[in-house]
Amino acid sequence: MIFNRFKTLCTALMLLATATVFSQENMPAPAGSPFSLKDCIQYALQNNTDVRKQNLAVLKTRYQIQEARAAGLPKVNASAQVLDNLILGKQLLPGDIFGQPGTVIPVTFGTQYLVPLKIEATQLLFNKQYTAGLQAAKAAEQLTQTNAAQVRESVAYNVASTYYSALLTKEQQNIVQANLDKIGQSVQVAQVQYDNKMIRRIDVDQLRVSQSNTRAELDNVQVSYTQTLDMLKILMGYPLADTLVLAGSAGVIAELPVLPANGTATNPTLLLLDQQATLKTLESKSIRAQYYPTVGLVANYGNQAQFDKLSDVNWIPSAVLGVAINVPIFDGFQKKRQLQQRDIELQTLTLDRQLVQNQLNAQYLNSIRKYRQTQQTAVNQQANLNLAQSVYDAVQNNYKNGIATLSDLINADTGLRAAQTQFLTAQLQVRISSLDVLRANGTVSSALIKN
User: Fold this and answer.
1) Same domain, yes or no, for 344 and 444?
2) Are 128 and 292 in contact, with CB atoms under 8 Å apart?
3) CA distance 149 to 143
4) What is the pLDDT of residue 257?
5) What does the pLDDT look like over 140-162, one tens digit per residue?
6) In a domain, 7, yes or no
7) Same domain, yes or no: 119 and 266
8) Which DSSP symbol is given to 95?
9) Whole-prediction pTM value?
10) Which pLDDT belongs to residue 229?
11) b/e per residue, 165-175, with b = 16+ CB within 10 A?
């Protein structure tokens, strides 16, 4: 017993040391320093509320396994009573015993006080349902762990998509700020031209209206960025009152190094259904085990004090050792109907698995097609943005030199803004489609943390 406890303690210490090393190797960026996508996901996998709840669920199932195992361990109970027989019972005995044939005589039995003490021990020797129940508890733990993996995948996907959205919103904020600066320069040029009687007052006013609209757009983008950052904090489990600084930029089109092969067979959703089917099979096994007899060992030892006065105490010991056997004979077909229900539930899970497998395969193929399409769209929008920027620069230069009109400048500015918006949208779609490819395989968290 002492050796087993020492072995358990050593194992726990080794696991604690391993977990400490792992946590240090995967430690996210400290609060206040810039967070990369990897840092955000690692932080979320440690602090997100849903992840922490699933970790508690896994811990609970481990305790349930220990509870199920405890049913096969020895049970020891002790009891003690102090009884005062206020009225002693009597029994009628034949008078022949006392020399009074043909009569019955009431005789008092027992003493005024009884103090029974007993200790009882039981040990399960044979019970097939116990073995099946222990297997079901272990299967339930695996089911909970897979469910926790599914939650981690969902959290990683949501964190990544929100992180990308925040980066692109920040990029949009920089672009709008740059546009505001350029419009400010144009307003200054227009004001000089107006002072020199080269343009009309309405031309200057139009530019000022555009400047005001751009400033309002910048305010909206800043609010949107703050809201997106707060959403990211909530997903990560990061304190809302603390500052979260994101590392990296959205200037480069995100690409998957290599398009992953179809790995939907290991998707946590499928594994979850497989483990549910295993659990149903073990439930059927547990029901069938109820047809078998159960055997247990029973032992008890007792000592009972009987007395009318404390000066006259008599202790009477007793001991019992035996085997208890319980044999089920007929239950009105209750177990048979339970087995039939489990069989139907197992068939339903099989159909669900086929459906989910087909859905995941379709999701994988569609996400690959979407990823390639958004990649091409992003490339086209990059070229379109470069062209729109060239057109705007040329028109702005011509406007400064009095060659182009204000209408030409406003049209070029509108075209540039549209190209910028389309390019940022394409950037976000590329990133989301890459996440969709990983989600179909159930590898979002592992792939993003690894890379």
Assistant:
1) yes
2) yes
3) 10
4) 61
5) 999 999 999 999 999 999 999 99
6) no
7) no
8) G
9) 0.80
10) 95
11) bbbbbbbbbeb
